[in-house]
Each structure stands twice: as structure tokens, then as C-alpha cells.
Specification:
The protein is an alpha+beta fold. Helix content is 58%, strand content 12%.
Length: 66
């Protein structure tokens, strides 16, 4: 199986698992998953990204504690 076939298989498997579910998606900075957003929109799936990524969440929590 070549690389393109593997990517297609992974994509189909992922889409099968997320149909009819709301996805909450977080990466470290909020910038590394643009390709995923395009895929989710293309498939008309329900999703939410954490603005600024996980690091923004921890920075906000640290600001509140001080």
C-alpha cells in the first residue's frame, strides 16, 4: 500500500468514526490543524476549535491565579 492509499484509508476511517458527533478539537497553538478544518467543512461535520490552542487555555488559567 502506497502513502496516498494509506492517507485515504486513514481519512475514511476517521470520517466514519466522527459522523453524527460534535468534535472539540485542540492543538498546542491553534494554528497547526487548518487542514483538518477544511476536511470537517467539506464533510459538513459539527466541530469546535479551542481558540489559541491548549496553551492559551493554560495561559488564561495562570493569569486568573495571579
Amino acid at each position: 500500500m502506497n502513502h496516498k492509499d494509506q492517507q485515504t484509508l486513514v481519512r475514511k476511517s476517521f470520517l466514519k468514526q466522527v459522523v453524527n458527533k460534535k468534535l472539540d478539537i485542540m492543538d498546542a497553538t491553534g494554528k497547526k490543524i487548518r487542514w483538518l478544518q477544511y476536511l470537517l467543512e467539506e464533510q459538513q461535520l459539527d466541530y469546535v476549535f479551542l481558540k489559541g490552542g491548549v496553551w492559551s487555555y493554560y495561559q488564561d488559567k495562570a493569569a486568573i491565579k495571579h
